[in-house]
């Protein structure tokens, strides 16, 4: 459980950090090489290296059997980047120009003006990342060998497989009841934390998605 919480927190933090910086920078027309960078990022949305090349890269970088392999290789979602970039493009440039006239630097403009105005989209993207990392088990299946580092989803998967392998020791009716009970327990354990977090972000969710998905 602690591994999953750590990966979810770090993955959400790193993903949100990279996505926010990249989306804001590429939403401004003054960035040199903007079209090239944007094209390279969108290209990865349709084409990727595949499982084996990605596995080899993770191993060569020394992240194999490390928790960093669960959130660094997929640190930024291109879909989330596009939604956030669209939101940033809708912010009035006159606010930034006024701040620069008053002597504010680009960093000050970003943290004191852009970020406070972007709370809805930031909360929405944070929820997207949190759900993604919380439900992810395939990366842990590929990169993690130490059982002590297993994520919650991988442990639940192992429990279900173990239940099926041990089903021969009980009668058919007992096996059916045990299997269904275990599956329902796994669903509850993996779902409750997200259900607890969601109400806190619900007021930002619809607003953030609508503002970030449709350009005014």
How does this model look, in words?
The chain has one domain: MetI-like (MetI-like fold), CATH 1.10.3720. It has 10 helices and no strands. 74% of the residues lie in helices and 0% in strands. The protein has 216 residues and is an all-alpha fold. Helix 7 packs antiparallel against helix 10.
Overall average residue pLDDT: 81
Radius of gyration: 21 Å
Q: Give the name of the CATH superfamily.
A: MetI-like
The helix/strand class is: mainly alpha
In CATH, what is the class? Mainly Alpha
E-strand count:
0
Q: How far do the termini sit from each other?
A: 42 Å
Largest sheet: none
Specify the CATH architecture. Answer: Orthogonal Bundle
Beta fraction:
under 5%
CATH topology descriptor: MetI-like fold
Shape: globular
Q: Show unreliable segments.
A: 212-216
User: In the residues, how many domains can be counted?
Assistant: 1
Helix content: over 70%
N-to-C order of helices and strands: HHHHHHHHHH
Query: With helices defined by DSSP (H or I, 4 residues minimum), what is the helix count?
Result: 10
